[in-house]
# Entry
Amino acid sequence: MGAVTPSRHTAVMADEDAQYLTFMLGGEMFAIGILGIKEIIEYGSLTVVPMMPAFVRGVINLRGAVVPVVDLSARFGRQNSAITRRSCVVIIEARADDGQPQDIGLLVDTVSAVQEIPAAQIEPPPSFGARIRADFISGMAKVEGKFVIVLEVDKVLSIDEMSSLAEAGQMPALDADAR
Amino acid sequence: MSINLDQAQQTFIVEARELLQAMEQSLLQLESEPGDQNAIGAVFRAAHTIKGSAGLFGLEPIVSFTHIVEDVLDRLRDASVAVDATLIAVLLKSGDHMLELIDVVASRGEALQTPALEREAALRQALSAYQGADHAVAGVPMTSVVNDTQGDVLWHLSLRFGVDVFRNGMDPLSFLRYLDTLGRILQVTTLTDRLPALDSWDAESCYLGFEIDLRSAASHATLNEVFDFVRDDCEVHISAVDDTPFETAPGGTELVAQPEQLAPAPQRVATNSEAKPRDGNYVRVNADKLDELINLVGELVIASAGASLLARSCTNDPLQEATSTVSGLVEEILDGALHLRMIPIGDTFNRFRRVVRDVSQELGKDIDLLISGAETELDKTVVEKIGDPLMHLLRNAMDHGIENATARREAGKPSKGHLSLNAYHDSGSIVIEIADDGAGLNRERILAKAQERGLVATGAQLTDQEIYNLIFEPGFSTAEAVTNLSGRGVGMDVVKRNITLLRGTVDLDSRPGQGTVVRIRLPLTLAIINGFLVGIDQSTYVIPLDMVQECIELDEPQRQSSRDQGYLDLRGEVLPLVDLREHFSHEGPPARRQNVVVVRYAEHKAGLVVDDLLGEFQTVIKPLGKLFGALRGISGSTILGSGAVALILDVPALLSQIVQLEARTAQAPQSPSVVVR
# Structure
């Protein structure tokens, strides 16, 4: 198995549900609960999968397992993230609706920190105005006087939704079952 | 017992199921050739072994029922009962019932449900007609004797274990322990007179005998059952002793004579020796362990490819030599490992004999099943998953395909319908054909139904092939009467879906009045393929090697003309081209030199235009996961020696995708074309 990019495991192992990984995306700060995060690796050697929607960046080899990488920015309906030296892939264990776990990589601009955010400092999501789909947001956390969007990972990385989007993307051109 | 009973019981269940299947085969064989002594022997052996093993685990319901079956079979064997259709039917049903009994054990259920018990009673009744007068008495009371306590009886058992007992996997001690559960062992005398001198002693042989006094309420038959397993190579004598428990232990050399016990023994030895060599040739391995091994071998292949790549990059000849030797060996291991998973499809096919027999009787049609290509091997997972779809197709063929005898005679066909199952290898895949000589599909009715359901636009021009394949659409059924077997319109679409999940395709061909052929094409294995690597831009794709026919270089003038025409003149043949670079929307200008990989799948042939040819590579298929479930044209991925991920092309899907796109663009030329011309 060839050279796998060195992985930096998240240093914090404590099982407190109030810990979040914060990261930057298009100049905005987001947070996700650390429990679903398996590891964070540097971005590199990605294989593009053709005929997939823009938010599916491609696949990477994670120590022998093939893991899809989702471009979070594109998933929010924005531009594809530009790759920089600080681009990272956050490996998350997502679950399909049938309960099958699947690892998915989340492409982000930079990871910032693992922070403890008390539940009291998390506000319910606004019904609009955050410029991303409301069901993607689990709450707005106040960190150092600024609002950080805490993401609802199950929704953002809903395999069923993403695969049906992929299917829909192919269908107009194909309609493969029509015959 | 010293062995883990739970585990042993699992083995028993698995074996019993296999034996029942073998028994069914032999019964069907017997039905077609009533005089077949081998088949009778095989059926008897199966029943006998099941009874014996069940006795060892104290599974009373199985023992008592099987005992009756065995009795009838025994009479069949010595020709006091003749084989006839009713008997076979009863025996087949008895086999089903035994399977049910075993399932109860397997699921740790309490007891049979009432309907099953009623069935059992009916079967017992039917079987008893075939039992001799004396047997009929001997068979049934056996259970009752156990149940009603006549009070303890003192039994004397003389056991002389055979020399090979240990080699056959039996532990004499376990029998003694089991006896202890049946009653109270008062005295055991171990007989050592057969022990040889120390220098000729074989540690794997058993030289011991036992004289046992047992006080038990169990019947003679129950005690006898205990030794069913070792009866063949041991001498066992059981007799009731009237009284005086502690004085009956004899010197140990004299066996209590019971001549009628000795008589059947030699026969059984003979039948058992037939079965033995077969056992010796196989090792039963847990499928999970096998999968794990194959996975590891897959990783090994990738790792060794990586090592070779590194070795080639440094100028160290001995190192390169060494890695190439390793690669060669790894390849052999891979072939061997993959072969472990390959099993002939014959077992699956044979299972359908019974289905065809039963269904044809139910439908009142006379149908013959012809099997060919049973030795064709394919991956175990594929074999397991293809059973249900095949069953569906067979039932459909019998129910809708083959007409009843009157209709057949009117059509000038023999009144006996024929159904054939055939399997063969063809360009890296296995083809399974289900053919019937029935009426064929009704083209008009399918079309009418499809239009009614809105599957086809009215006035659309469809080829016969397209119309026939409409029956694989969900919710499609043309049967006028919904029968027990089929006609509800669930089925064909499920069949198609299951086959697609196995990376296979299904295709149907029909001729009115002459019959229908369904062709299923499946990959041989799901784990590893031989691939041909091609490069487009920075990406690497893998084309399954079985489909690659040849590679040709595309020079500049050809390139221009092929670009204009979309096809290439391949030695006078028209070869449609697919520019993968454009199809997969790779950006950037095409490479200066391009190549064409000629692929063939079934009757389709096409040329894939790629940038680089990178050579052969054995690849472990890594599924892409659910996220890419809708992706067509790519069947999976693999990890290259460099650590990069390469995508495996699904050539059949790719080609059919392109055919559809072309058809679409031909219909609506203004729509933006994704495909390259």
Observations:
- Confidence is low (pLDDT under 50) at residues 1-16, 172-179 of chain A.
- Residues 48 and 58 of chain A are 4 Å apart (CA to CA).
- The interface with chain B takes residues 1-4, 45, 47-52, 56, 58-61, 64-66, 68, 96, 100, 102, 104, 159-160, 162-164, 166-167, 170, 173-179 of chain A (CB under 8 Å).
